[in-house]
Amino acid sequence: MASLVAIVVAHDSADVLPACLAALAGEHVPAIVVDNASRDASASVAEAAGAQVIRNARNEGYGRANNRGVRAAATAEHVLIVNPDVVLRPGAVDALLEAARSWPDAGLLAPRLVEPDGRFFFQARSLLAPYLTNPAGRLALPQGDACAPFLSGACLMMPRALFLDLGGFDENIFLFYEDDDLCRRVADRGRALIHVHRAEALHGRGRSSAPEPGRVFRARWHQAWSRAYVSRKYGLPDPGLADLMTSIPKALLSGLVLRRAGLERYGGSAAGALAFLRGRTALAREGLAG
């Protein structure tokens, strides 16, 4: 049985996949690339790098594609969810596996993420972590391995059996907050979330997919919708109306001053919040309902 298999979801990711897959190969980790109907050469790039490729006929969203990849990794004891713009540094996989052996009750483990400018990225709070003792999100970076209330979905390792037992990522979500939701369900199971400081990964942040017209509007739509969805799922205050009332004036002002970036940003947030309030699903927006 392979101890670890990496799952990489690609969508127009041909520019960043070579470095990601080369790093995995250098760590002797087989990769399954789930291609979400890329319009570039992502699938052929992945095949040339020796990865197993699953081609989705259309963009299924981040969570649904990852779930398909994990189900295909039938021989794996652990799975490593990796964004295509993440490059594991030498020794990162050994450190993650060693941590998993040291803390067998851990449900999720993640490496130290380093941003392009050299900063150490660490999420200090989560919408779905009411047990968090640092509600203001004061940044206190770990100096070593540490338990955390939330781990970034850019790179996560967990036992495959646990992932499947939890139902994987919530497939009602097309994009955003899938990792918050998974972290919350792992924590609710009583399993620890561990930041593994000795494992390091470079994160390109925002470079997973090539730019495209309307990308900002679409991303903000899903961000607002998913935030409202997970809030309702866990009985938290519904942010939809507040998001709507905040975003509409900003979108109108951006339109008045002909600021397209602001119009897309705030218009997308308003549209996503309104869609949730009206009962429209994220999957329906993407033509995936049913």
UniProtKB/TrEMBL annotation:
It comes from Methylobacterium oryzae. This is Glycosyl transferase. PANTHER family: RHAMNOSYLTRANSFERASE WBBL. The keyword Transferase applies. CDD domains: GT_2_like_c. It comes from the Bacteria. GO terms for molecular function: transferase activity. InterPro entries: Glyco_trans_2-like, Nucleotide-diphossugar_trans. Keywords: Transferase. SUPFAM superfamilies: Nucleotide-diphospho-sugar transferases. Residues 7-163 form the Glycosyltransferase 2-like domain.
